Amino acid sequence: MLDRNYKKIESDLIDWIRKKVKDAGCQGAVIGLSGGIDSSVTSLLCQKAFPENTLGLIMPCLSNPEDKIDAVKHAEKFGIKYKEINLSDPYQKLIQTINDYDSELDLEEVINNKNLAAAQGSLKLALANMKPRLRMTLLYYYANLNNYLVVGTDNRSELKLGYFTKYGDGGIDIAPLGNLVKLEVRGLARKMGIDPKIITKQPSAGLWDGQSDQDEIGLSYREIDYYIVDGEADAETAAKIEKIAAANRHKLELPAVPNF
Q: Is the pTM higher than 0.90?
């Protein structure tokens, strides 16, 4: 699986991005920079496709400070234009507004602690998913402002599982990494000279303190990727992957409408 011609993949993806943007009548690309491997690879592909018309947005939202540092270093290393807009206050104010209007919820501890540690279960996920949806709003603001496309960072592994926030990081125009599983994204990142710290960082959506993809999914990307590409997995792992994929399939489809 990892024995790929990453130089050719890089060239083909740059051409593909350029064509998709031009076919849409747009002039460039806007990408969220999280300090993670997927956003780093995607932003560099876009910068090579549109050196003067690529914009990275760094949007901390009660996030790990190291992620912002990594995102800035990446952008500056490769000459990617970027803006930093901190969404922590708008996020907190939105939670406060919900708390003011919904007497059945007690969000004061979440608001006072400025993290999601106090929330549990469905409430924790509901509040966490507001973060990528706020980021999506800002990405489309700058896309509309500059006549750019919003370029997503979702890879094939995430798309297979539906492991993204609907109308959040799934609210995009194109997904250049959509045919590369996570391990292949790492191979491409090495070829492109991405910082090794970013490549080896534990994958995380950054939804809450200590959150990691593997803990949330319950599987490693190695298990997921080998199943997707080669069909290699024990029965339990295969069943778990297909169960998650089936539950999240709606995220990859247009809204259902009656056929009568």
A: yes
Buried b (16+ CB within 10 A) or exposed e, 67-99: bbebbbebbeebebebeeeebeeebbeebeeee
Which pair of tokens denotes residue 181? 């599983």
Task: With beta carbons less than 8 A apart as the criterion, state whether 61 and 131 touch.
Answer: yes
Tokens of 196: 């090794």
Domains of the chain: 6-87+131-251 (3.40.50.620)
* pLDDT tens, residue by residue, 25-64: 999 999 999 999 999 999 999 999 999 999 999 999 998 9
Q: Is 88 known as a binding-site position?
A: no
Q: Taking each helix axis as running N to C, give the angle between helix 37-49 and helix 182-192, from 0 to 180 degrees, rounded to the nearest 10.
A: 50
Helix, strand, coil % (nearest 5) of the chain? Answer: 55, 5, 35
Q: Report whether 98 belongs to an annotated binding site.
A: no
Taking alpha carbons only, the member of 185, 182, 177, 170 closest to residue 227 is: 182
Q: Is 76 annotated as a binding residue?
A: no
- Check whether 207 is labelled as a binding-site residue: no
